[in-house]
Amino acid sequence: MLFASSALALASALVGPMQPTVRPLTDLERQAALTLPHPRQVAWQQLEFTCFVHFGINTFTGREWGTGHEDPAIFNPTALDCDQWVTEAKNAGMKLIMLTAKHHDGFCLFQSDYTDHDVGSSPWKEGRGDVMAELASACRRHGMKLGFYLSPADLHAIHVNVYGNHSQPAKSTIPSPVPGVEHEGPQFEYVVDDYNRYFLNQLYELLTRYGPINEVWFDGANPKPGTGQTYDYRAWYDLIRRIQPEAVIAIKGPDVRWCGNEAGQTRAEEWSVIPIAGTPDHCTWPDMTGDDLGSMARIEATLAEGGWLHWYPAETDTSIRHGWFWRDEDQHVRPPDEIFDVWERSVGGNTVLLLNVPPDRRGLFADRDVDVLREVGRRAQRTYARNLAEGAGLIASATSVAESLASLLDADPSTAWRAPDGVRSASIVLNLNESRRFNRVVLQEDIARSGQRVERFAIDVWLGNRWYEVAQGTTVGYKRIVRLPLTEADRVRVRITSSRVSATLAEIGLYRSVE
Ligand code: FUL
User: What percent of the chain has pLDDT over 90?
Assistant: First the structure.
């Protein structure tokens, strides 16, 4: 259906010329616009689509949360092949794979010197296998980035009296000495209790043995709260920063925020500049599940109570299956339409999509999951292969203080068009030279240099002899994908109707979806 069809044309409004906003700049607004990401957060955001791999003891019991009493003998994948995971993830367009190195049950998919509850005690490869090592070398072979999830909650460690044992913090060397094991790498000292020492030693193993790590993932879930165990997050973060400073620390950490649900829902307005209570050094990174996390009103209220502004972008984590772990042949696998819808809303909603694909008992992505991944990758690739605005003539209502207008079509989000300070609304007209049919508009901001500024925008098309508004939106951030009915026009106008400090955009794209 073309946009020009009567129902939609009637519903759209005639849009008049832009009036520049003349509200004076406040310090708070400046502070919000000047809150910038760390380079490691920019690099992470540019990954766009990443893969979670839930695999472990639960794969062999059919449970979502294990008990910690499982016998390592049940872990025995018959055909584990990390090259298959990485190849399929790569074909889907994913740029990082993150393994559940240890889930809440405490069983480790890597060879740990600090526990027997690991792959070393399993029959898989006669106890000499290491899933993290196999994944790391497959990632190296295929140019994929690597991350790991190390569950803070650990039921097995409760059973062996390491977790929640009320031990006193003691000065501890990391890596702690182990009889018969030579440690050659750097050493660190922390004053920590038994579980935090165990956890730091495992972090050390994961951070030093498997090459570059780009994401470390901690959650707040705990199947057995109330043991009195506390986590020394500051020591954990310190160790990660010292060994792998490029790695973002996600969820229960300062670099990447949980989107707030596991269903793939996204916010209409997604800010990466977030007001937090107190300073980042003392923040405990609580779950943030509300609709409004970063409006100016919220910033004002939080900062009035002594809060801080922090670049804290969202990650949308959801599973391709019903449940995080592979369970059985009948387990529901979400169809490509649904996953592609999540992909467009999350990648195109200023978040990174972390899609979980759980290997089966063979240690392979199952055929049904692979089919979905391939189809999602095909649609994303084909839909967004060619910007139909390429070569368009550009006219802006405001002069530019950054690079020229041409940077809007140069496929490089690190070059941007930006109006002078105080000009918070502006419009950009694209003259396409000929009629083009499109149903996706992609907008981007240069987050590395201008942070996140756009608060509201609208899109108009020229039909006959006037502009019709076809879409409205709120935030843009790293990337906003606007979905429209199929529209045909030779002139398109992007109006930024409100922004912080100055209107800006780094990229504008027009695309047509491929079924
Ligand atoms: C949660 C865990 O409890 C789930 O089992 C799963 O790992 C999910 C990604 O994080 O906190």
Answer: 92
CATH topology of domain 39-164+194-266+312-384: TIM Barrel (3.20.20)
Q: Which atom of ligand 1 is nearest to the CA of 149?
A: 7
Q: Would you give the DSSP letter of residue 503?
A: -
Asked if residues 270 and 362 have their Cβ atoms less than 8 Å apart, the reply is: no
* CATH number of the 3-38+386-511 domain: 2.60.120.260
Examine the pLDDT at 4 and tell me if it is beyond 80. no
**333 vs 323: CA distance, rounded Å:** 10
Lining ligand 1 with CB less than 6 A are 64, 219, 221, 317, 324
Nearest residue by C-alpha to atom 6 in ligand 1: 324
CB atoms within 10 A of CB 76: 15
pTM check: above 0.90: yes
Atom 2, ligand 1: which residue's CA is nearest? 221
HEC per residue, 37-92:
CCHHHHHHHCCCEEEEECCCHHHHHCCCCCCCCCCHHHCCCCCCCHHHHHHHHHHC
